[in-house]
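User: My notes are a mess, but here's the protein and zinc ion's SMILES. Can you give me a structure?
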Amino acid sequence: MAERDIERWFTDQQTRKTRRLEACANKRWFATEAEARAAALWDRTQFGERLTSYSCDVCTGWHLTGGHRR
Ligand SMILES: [Zn+2]
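Assistant: No problem, the inputs look usable. Here's the predicted complex:
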């Protein structure tokens, strides 16, 4: 791998890490998948939003992704 490619890869990894940290800080937090799924189901019945639960590798908790558009 060329040095330039390694630099690009490294920058890309840093960007992804920052995005994950920001997403983690801005999202609702759930201790378990069951809680996240319950919240997702609630949002679907209340607001018609389709959210997906995922385990977060930043805080080891669960968040929802999908619906919200601002
Ligand atoms: Zn998180």
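The first helix runs from residue 3 to 26.
User: Great, I'll file this with my notes.
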